[in-house]
From TrEMBL:
UniProt-listed InterPro entries: ATPase_NBD, GspL_cyto_dom, T2SS_protein-GspL
A single cellular component GO annotation: Gram-negative-bacterium-type cell wall
Organism, as annotated: Polymorphobacter multimanifer
Pfam families in the cross-refs: T2SSL
Ranges of residues in domain GspL cytoplasmic actin-ATPase-like: 35-150
Name of the protein: General secretion pathway protein L
GO term, biological process aspect, one: protein secretion by the type II secretion system
Domain of life, per lineage: Bacteria
Length: 353
């Protein structure tokens, strides 16, 4: 573990072993040791005891933030607050500092290439003394943690002021005692709210296998859906081709093999003297070939016009066929579509201009 004491100049650091013994210490760029516990300047964070009802963590943080206005004169939006876990008496620690200060400390740590596991107010490094007060000098200030008749206190102040605030003289600790307590889980971590550490998501054991199976299942369903749509489209195209061939058979001499319905009917129309029905049916067959999803349900003709009933999935298909017939020099009039068995049926009348 590494304790990193933040300061306007180069930070001091202590390297601790698992037992809380100081194995190395220095100033400036710290060694590559994890986890790193950052300690902000002692006088930049104020600590208070508050009582909150039994709330969810997010609600407790919001309530504590509102209570911070009782202790700080600065606008609430300029403050950063953090809370500790409730004790047996229901009280917990509330830390208040500046949001800009927090951002600056984290920026300085980032410049050092350090990602702190926690940021602990300096007085929280001291072990609690249930029967009195303990203190440890850090620079020009005295860190104090005390159990007073009106409740626990933790603060940093100049030595004369700190002693004046205490009813009894504090017991002075050495660095080794502070280090031994520092390896324990902190009573309060400033990395909360918008400054909380962002943990990368990691799948629980076995979940990656389940996710892989789910992805494979989804892919299979997508492929199956595409195959089903292709099969349906092929069936629709086959039905349309059968319809065209059936219509062509009525226009060609009996027994004529159907090889290319449009070409055969067009040739028949060109050679026919009367050619009324054929001249109307050939462009209709050509239009149907461009819309494989359209089938011909019925067809009737007289000397001057042809009436057909089209089955489509969309009114747009009828519009496309009508446009093709108009482009062929014919007059095409479509009626209103009507629903039948999941499809749309539309009556179409084709005549010469």
């Amino acid at each position: 573990m590494l304790l990193l004491f933040l300061a306007p100049a180069d930070p001091d650091w202590w390297q601790l072993d698992d037992a809380g013994r100081i194995v190395a210490r220095g100033t400036g760029t710290p060694p590559a040791v994890t986890p790193v516990i950052a300690i902000p300047p002692a006088d930049a964070v104020s600590l208070h005891r508050i009582t909150l009802p039994n709330l969810a963590p997010a609600q407790a943080q919001a309530a504590a933030r509102m209570m911070a206005t009782e202790f700080a004169a600065a606008p609430l939006e300029s403050l950063h607050t953090a809370i500790g876990s409730p004790g047996p008496d229901g009280q917990r620690w509330l830390a208040i500092t500046g949001a800009d200060a927090m951002a600056g400390w984290l920026a300085s740590l980032d410049a050092l290439g350090v990602s702190p596991a926690a940021m602990v107010p300096a007085p929280m490094l001291l072990p609690p003394d249930p029967q009195g007060a303990v203190a440890w000098p850090l620079g020009p200030l005295l860190l104090v943690r005390a159990a007073l008749p009106d409740g626990p206190r933790a603060f940093a102040a100049e030595p004369d002021l700190a002693e004046a605030l205490l009813p009894v003289a504090p017991r002075l600790l050495d660095a080794e005692a502070v280090a031994a307590h520092a390896v324990r889980p902190p009573a309060l971590d400033l990395l909360q709210g918008r400054f909380a550490r962002r943990q990368p998501w990691k799948a629980p054991p076995g979940q990656m296998k389940r996710l892989a199976l789910l992805a494979a299942t989804v892919a299979l369903l997508l492929v199956a859906g595409d195959a089903a749509r292709l099969w349906q489209a092929a069936r629709a195209a086959d039905a349309a081709a059968e319809t065209r061939d059936a219509l062509a058979a009525t226009l060609l001499p009996p027994g004529t093999p159907i090889t290319s319905a449009r070409a055969q009917v067009a040739a028949r129309a060109a050679s026919a003297a009367s050619g009324g029905f054929s001249r109307l049916a050939a462009p209709l067959l050509a239009a149907l070939e461009t819309c494989p999803g359209v089938s011909l349900a019925a067809v009737e003709a007289d000397a001057t016009s042809l009436s057909a009933t089209l089955e489509t999935a969309s009114p747009g298909d009828v519009a496309a066929i009508t446009a093709a017939l108009e482009a062929a020099g014919l007059t095409a009039t479509a009626g209103l579509p009507r629903g039948t068995a999941g499809t749309l049926q539309t009556d179409l009348k084709v005549s010469r201009r």
